[in-house]
Each structure stands twice: as C-alpha cells, then as structure tokens.
Design a protein that fits this description.
This protein is an alpha+beta fold. It is built from 15 helices and 18 strands. It has 2 domains: 157 residues, Creatinase/prolidase N-terminal domain (Creatine Amidinohydrolase, Chain A, domain 1), CATH 3.40.350.10; 282 residues, Creatine Amidinohydrolase, CATH 3.90.230. Bound molecules: manganese (II) ion.
Length: 477
C-alpha cells in the first residue's frame, strides 16, 4: 500500500480488532466511527450531485427509489430475507430499510426518506437511521397506506418523475418505471466507488478474511465441509442470512462444481484439497474471496505445486492492471498464462501456444476472470461500454465473461483465475482426442480444482488489493 493510501485508509477507517475475550478469535468490527460518518456525508453529497446530473441529462424533474416488497414462498407466510433495492441502499444502509420504504429525489430539494416503520410485535422494527439526520429529511410511517399518501402529497404539480425499483402496482403511478437510458447511466457509474464505499468494502474484506483464516485452520485439522462452513460464520461473525452469497465450501472433487452448494456433514475419504469461495458483508457492501488449499503430504505434491503456480499466475494478472486497459484483454491474458501453467506442469502434451490458440484452456477454466463488485456481488454494468448505454458484449469465445469494460480508477472488481478438472468437460476433450496428459490429469481429478480470487481497486498506478490487505491485517490481529 503506498503511504498516501495508508494515510487515507487510517484517516477514515478504525482498525478492526480481535476480541481477546472471545476464545474463537472472531472478528470484532468497529462501530461506524465519527470518521466513517464524515465519509458518509461526502458520499451522500456525491450521490446528490451525481443524481442531479443524471436526472438533468434525461430530463426528469425527480426520481423515486423504492425499497421493494417482501416476497413469500408459494402458499406460505414467510419468505427469503428482504433485500432492498441496491439503488436505495446506496443512500441508506439496508439494515434501516423495511419493505415499502422510499426515497424522493428532486432537483434542488433535500432528499426525503419515507421509512416504513411498522408497529409490529411479531418482528423487531429496524433501527432508525440517526446517522442520516443531517443529510436528508427522514419521515417514518407505521402504515403503508399513510406512507403512500404522504409520497403523493410530496410531489406537487405534474413533474416528470422516474421510478427505480420493482414494478408493483403501488409503483406504477410514481413515474416512468426503470427507464433504460437513465438506468444505463446509473449502472455504468456504480462501478467506481466513493471513499465511503471503499471504506465499507475494506471492512467487508476484513470480515471475509477473518472467516477464511479460521476455515483454513479447520480444514487442516480435518474438519468436514460443514465444520469449515460453521467456523467461517463464527469467525466472520456472520449468520447465514448476513452472507453476501452462499458459501462454496468444496472438499476434493466438489471443487470441480463451480457453484457447489452443499456442506457435507461427514468426510468419507481423506481430504486432499479445499476450495472455499466465501464473502463478507459490511453495510450491504460485499467482498468475494476464494482460496484453495491442500494437505501437505507427498501424495498431494503435484496439486500443491499447481496451487503455487496459480498463485503466481493470479499475482501476475493483478500486476498487469492499469487504468485504460480492457478487462476482456486481461481475461485473454489469463488463458494465455493458464496455457503456460498447463504446459509447465505437464498436463498437456502440446505447447502452451497451441493450448491457448486451440481454446484447450477454456475446458480447464470455463468461467470469466472476474466481475464488478459492490452492493451486489455481481455488480451491475459489467457489459456497458459507456454511460450512454452502448454495449461491450463478451467476446464470442468467452461468453461467461461478466466484465468487459475499460478499467478506470476506483473501479472495484474481482480477479479470479481458475483451473478445474471438470468431468463433463474432460470427457469432451477425450472425445476430441485433445493433447492432454491423461494419467497426470486423472491423478489430479480427485482434487477438483483451484481458484484464487482477490478484490482489487484500480489506482492511477497499480491496484489496492482489498483482499490481501485484509488477510495481512487479520493474520496480525
Ligand atoms: Mn467472484
């Protein structure tokens, strides 16, 4: 971290500490400090100016951002955890947002937050967002009907309004629903983060790193996928519903299932490898981190060497990042380097050049190199060439690439090269008589695969590696 960045970091972010009274050495995160509060004020100011430009560009007098409604499972009285519209939770920490809440933005007017705060003895109402008192007008309503009435009265005349949020009947009258041009503009700019958002994402990275360190220990000690998952939750101080996405905890060949979703309670055979893809959440912002480990015994030597190669391959890709370059080009570099890894470790019988040019590497890594990250784990706008809505579609041979844009300072995204032994894709290669060293590949198949994933912020030169910084802080703590 360059000194200026270290200073910037220190100035608004209290260092998380491990609670020494807690025998599990779980992370204990600081309460939003005065300094973070100061960043929040700057963030809201930035959003105000940004929305004023956006609305002026597309000739709207104002906009409604609505939180959305709680959905229920079919013929049931409960449903998944409510997750507010990210366009609203960019302004208001989603922990404060009940279903039905709305924000009114009008040119040259303070934002008004209409909070739904039901009188409910079945559930605890969300806390009130005192932190926003100086930044916007906050009105609370117990009844949704009263809230809607107040919304109608807050808009005088016949202004041209946009509505951003789900398209329920209540929202139809609020304005033009999710206009594409406005949304493209907003989506495009969500990629670059404000200092407040970066601070939140550093903390989300700390949460994730604390979980990953505990997970690695439990794996080495012989834990099952379930044990590792529970240790991750405990150490990162997250309940399952707090996670930015479901943990992927994959021992042995489970790692070849890219979004493996189970946690096995018993381990029938000795564990050879662990791929864990698990994130942290802080005030609605996500980290998205993957690590791969092996048990250090002679039988795992080849797989361990492959992990080392993938580690340096991932670092090389991160070192290549600079503003102005295309992420699609970086993705192509990943395949070029993957071809070298395959050739170097004797897994293919052709040259690295041939493994790359024939597309052989795509069978060993069928996913994209990375994606934008923020309020959503796969953040919006990855395929936009500009804020006018022109598209930057993925190259024809890499259809799974979620992020194709030109890199810009303060964009945050993941870099996650992988190398997998996926039975169905290997079968295709066998069918096609591909130049694969089958004995070597089959010996590694039981280890599933490797993915190394960090979250980076683009700097004028190089990157801030949110993930590696967080691992450093957490392993010291
Ligand atoms: Mn990811």
């Amino acid at each position: 971290m360059p000194p200026s960045l270290a200073q910037e970091y220190k100035s608004f972010m209290p260092t998380p500490t491990i609670d020494t009274h807690n025998p599990d050495h779980s992370i204990s995160l600081p309460h939003p400090s005065e300094a973070l509060q100061a960043e929040l004020a700057g963030h809201i100011e930035h959003l105000l100016a940004h929305w004023q430009d956006a609305l002026a560009n597309y000739e709207y007098d104002g906009a409604w951002l609505s939180a959305g409604e709680q959905s229920l499972y079919f013929q049931d009285d409960h449903g998944p955890k409510f997750k507010a519209n990210p366009y609203l939770s960019q302004w208001v920490n989603r922990e404060y947002l009940s279903p039905g809440s709305r924000l009114l933005l009008k040119q040259d007017q303070r934002p008004i937050l209409f909070l739904h705060a039901p009188t409910d003895y079945w559930h605890a109402p969300p806390p009130l967002p005192d932190e926003l008192n100086d930044l916007m007008e906050v009105r609370t309503f117990a009844e949704p009907a009263a809230l809607l009435d107040a919304c109608q009265q807050a808009v005088h005349g016949n202004p041209r309004m946009a509505h951003i949020g789900d398209e329920s009947t209540d929202n139809e009258a609020m304005g033009e629903s999710n206009p594409t041009a406005l949304l493209d503009y907003l989506h495009f700019h969500r990629a670059t983060k404000t200092p407040y958002e970066l601070a939140a994402m550093r903390l989300a990275s700390d949460v994730g790193a604390a979980g990953h360190l505990a997970a690695a220990e439990v794996f080495t000690a012989g834990g099952t996928e379930f044990d590792i998952h529970m240790a991750y939750l405990r150490a990162s101080q997250q309940a399952e519903i707090d996670l930015p996405y479901g943990n992927i905890v994959a021992i042995n060949e489970h790692a070849a299932v890219l979004h493996y979703q189970h946690q096995q309670r018993h381990q029938p055979r000795p564990a050879r490898s662990l791929l864990i893809d698990a994130g942290g959440n802080y005030r609605g912002y996500a980290s998205d981190i993957t690590r791969t480990y092996t048990i250090d015994i002679p039988a795992n030597q080849a797989f361990g060497a492959l992990i080392d190669l993938m580690q340096s391959h991932q670092r090389q890709l991160i070192d290549a990042i600079a503003p102005g370059m295309s992420f699609a080009d970086l993705h192509a570099q990943m395949h070029q380097q993957l071809a070298e890894v395959l050739a170097q470790s004797g897994l293919v019988t052709c040259s690295a050049e041939a493994a790359f040019s024939t597309g052989l590497t795509e069978k060993f890594c069928p996913h994209g190199l990375g994606h934008l990250l923020g309020l959503q784990v796969h953040d919006v706008g990855g395929h936009l060439a500009d804020d006018q809505g022109n598209a930057a579609p993925p190259p024809a041979n890499y259809p799974s690439l979620r992020f194709t844009r030109t890199l810009e300072v303060d964009q945050v995204f993941t870099v996650e090269p992988g190398l997998y032994f996926i039975p169905s894709l290997l079968a295709e290669l066998k069918q096609a008589n591909a130049p694969v060293a089958w004995a070597e590949v089959e010996a590694l198949q039981e280890c599933g695969g490797i993915r190394i994933e960090d979250n980076v912020r683009v700097l004028p030169e190089g990157v801030e590696n949110l993930t590696r910084d967080a691992f450093t802080r957490q392993s010291r703590a």
